[in-house]
Design goal:
Elements lengths: L2 E3 L7 E7 L5 E8 L5 H12 L4 E6 L2 E2 L17 E5 L1 E8 L3 E6 L4 E7 L7 E4 L5 E5 L4 E6 L5 E6 L5 E6 L5 E6 L4 E5 L5 E5 L6 E6 L5 E6 L3 E6 L5 E6 L4 E6 L5 E6 L4 E5 L5 E5 L6 E6 L5 E6 L4 E5 L4 E6 L6 E7 L4 E6 L4 E5 L5 E5 L9 E9 L1
Parallel strand pairs: 2-6
Antiparallel strand pairs: 1-2, 2-3, 4-5, 4-6, 7-8, 7-34, 8-9, 10-11, 11-12, 12-13, 14-15, 15-16, 16-17, 18-19, 19-20, 20-21, 22-23, 23-24, 24-25, 26-27, 27-28, 28-29, 30-31, 31-32, 32-33
Length: about 375
């Protein structure tokens, strides 16, 4: 399906759209002006063919955000697909080992499960949201089905409390970090520990895989973030900070690593040279969580005070500071299907924010008031 750019100053674009599932032509010759966004295209498709839910526009396997311009990004002979998504899902994991699934569009609680009688200290969802790992005080990391709650595998090591956990993008590996200062890479198919990483002095608070799984990053109480080779288990870079490092996250292209620390700043580093590329300053308290958007152009930050900040990673400017949580924000996520942001807090609530206006549109609070704390959350388009 080609997008044809007319030879005129107005750059009118004529677009045909196929279904990503069936390949059927949904509509053809939609005429949009040069200033049109992906959101405009989505609305035009919905007007022509109708929709029982949200329509996502896919380009090269990635869901395009609504504010992205068509002209400039989509030019020449390219393929665009539309995916009818019944509703976007929000998955939340709490320290009482409860995992909830919500309809992020309607605010309806779809499912709530108690996955373990043991309290969790850390948690992470796989990229496809099918699995969740709960890290506990006894050194066990429990791999479970997020759909059924069934236990799949126990990852056991002698390292004390499991302070942080992460999945590789393909779901084949897991990274667990401990109060002892060690971290371990696991093969989730066999349950075997394939690498042990032990360079931190004291607790390791943060873990992350690069998108291609070639690198892992850790951050600890020893005021360092470290970059490791997944294949060899060797430490490649040590990045010094002025205080404990609470979060690490890779950019989508793995060229950069962000870290958040005691100093109320987010630092962005080159994963090749270890050079500090830039720093996002003036958060109102310690940075507890942060991540890049899927296109690498935005950074979302959650802090100890309960505030959430959205940054333009290219301009290094703060777009919004969002306030509403009563306690520290422990998890944040982008929800591109709704052009929303999500944050989860120690107050037991998750909040949905309008990315454009900064307005809070929904609060997911089934565990609010119970003393349960949000440890992790993730979003996915429901199919």
């Amino acid at each position: 399906m080609a997008i044809v750019e007319a030879e005129s100053p107005s750059k009118v674009v004529s677009i045909s759209v196929n279904s990503a599932l069936s390949g059927e032509c949904l509509c053809s010759k939609l005429v949009l002006q040069s200033g049109a966004t992906v959101g405009d295209l989505r609305n035009a498709i919905t007007e022509q063919v109708g929709s029982s839910g949200r329509t996502c526009i896919l380009f090269e396997g990635r869901v395009l955000a609504s504010e992205e311009l068509l002209v400039g990004r989509l030019t020449g002979d390219v393929t665009v697909e539309a995916l009818q998504c019944p509703w976007p899902m929000l998955h939340i994991a709490y320290d009482n080992s409860v995992v909830e699934t919500w309809n992020a569009d309607s605010g309806e609680l779809v499912q709530s499960q108690v996955l373990s009688k043991v309290a969790a200290v850390s948690a992470a969802f796989s990229a496809d949201t099918r699995f969740v790992i709960l890290g506990c005080n006894d050194g066990l990391a429990n791999l479970r089905s997020a759909d059924t709650g069934g236990s799949i595998r126990m990852l056991q090591a002698r390292g004390g409390t499991v302070r942080s956990v992460a999945f590789s993008a393909d779901g084949r590996l897991a990274l667990t970090s401990y109060a002892s200062g060690t971290s371990r890479i696991w093969n989730l198919q066999t349950g075997a520990c394939v690498k042990s990483l032990s360079k931190h002095e004291g607790q390791v608070f943060a873990t992350a895989f690069s998108k291609d799984s070639a690198l892992v990053a850790t951050g600890g109480i020893d005021a360092t973030a470290k970059l490791w080779s997944t294949r060899t288990g060797k430490c490649i870079l040590t990045l010094p900070h002025d205080g404990p490092v609470y979060v690490v996250a890779f950019s989508p292209d793995s060229a950069s690593l962000l870290s958040g620390s005691f100093t109320r700043a987010v630092a962005v580093w080159s994963t090749t040279s270890g050079e500090l590329l830039y720093s996002l300053q003036d958060h109102d308290s310690r940075v507890f969580c942060a991540l890049f958007s899927s296109d690498g152009k935005s950074i979302l930050v959650g802090t100890e005070s309960g505030s959430v900040s959205l940054w333009d990673a290219e301009l290094k400017t703060c777009i919004h500071t969002l306030r509403g949580h009563a306690s520290a924000v422990q998890a944040v996520a982008f929800l591109p299907e709704l052009d929303m942001l999500v944050s989860g807090s120690e107050d037991g609530s998750a909040m949905l924010w309008n990315r454009t206006t900064g307005e809070c549109t929904k609060i997911f609070g089934a565990q609010a008031g119970t003393g349960a704390k949000v440890l992790a959350l993730t979003t996915r388009c429901g199919l």
